């Protein structure tokens, strides 16, 4: 007859032993992906979708509509237009400090794309084109206005600014005659 200690070590026991690597793999699966990774995945999955002015759906995207939906998929709500998206964050990112997930703005805030990997961006360029990834060219660098790194706190602050503007109304116009 087996002793209780011997019984505990039998193959019929429901005990599972995991290695450190297996435990890390299980823990990593439980950690949600960072917002920027989710946003990039969303935008990259839309490659080939036609550019549609004012578009923000699978029928078509304009540049800011693609960024809006990409970060929405990651749980971050952005304003609608490129200029508002740039203004939603007080911290600006320089050309030399760009990282995947950063929103990059060009041509007087008339265009926005997202850094997909070093030296590349995903964007919806213009009418007649499709969402695509392209290399950041010298021309893009010359047209570069700035970049932001979306985060939930920055957007909340921007919403508060907009709400305050709505509550207080437009600033009164004043003029002086000399």
UniProtKB/TrEMBL annotation:
Residue intervals passing through the bilayer: none
Keyword entries, A-Z: Hydrolase, Protease, Thiol protease
Domain of life per record: Bacteria
Family label: Belongs to the peptidase C40 family.
Start and end residues of each NlpC/P60 domain: 33-151
Lineage: Bacteria, Bacillati, Actinomycetota, Actinomycetes, Streptosporangiales
Protein name: NlpC/P60 domain-containing protein
């Amino acid at each position: 007859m087996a002793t209780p200690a011997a019984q505990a070590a039998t193959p019929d026991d429901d005990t599972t032993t995991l290695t450190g690597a297996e435990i890390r793999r299980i823990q990593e699966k439980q950690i949600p992906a960072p917002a920027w990774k989710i946003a990039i995945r969303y935008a990259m999955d839309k490659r080939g979708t036609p550019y549609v002015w004012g578009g923000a759906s699978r029928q078509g995207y304009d540049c800011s509509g693609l960024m809006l939906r990409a970060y929405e998929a990651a749980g971050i709500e952005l304003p609608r237009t490129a200029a508002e998206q740039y203004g939603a964050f007080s911290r600006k990112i320089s050309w030399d400090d760009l990282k995947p997930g950063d929103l990059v703005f060009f041509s007087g805030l008339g265009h926005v794309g997202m850094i997909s990997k070093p030296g590349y961006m995903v964007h919806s360029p213009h009418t007649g084109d499709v969402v695509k990834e392209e290399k950041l060219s010298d021309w893009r660098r010359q047209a570069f206005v700035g970049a932001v790194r979306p985060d939930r706190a920055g957007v909340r602050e921007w919403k508060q600014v907009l709400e305050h503007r709505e509550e207080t109304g437009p600033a009164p116009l004043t003029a002086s005659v000399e």
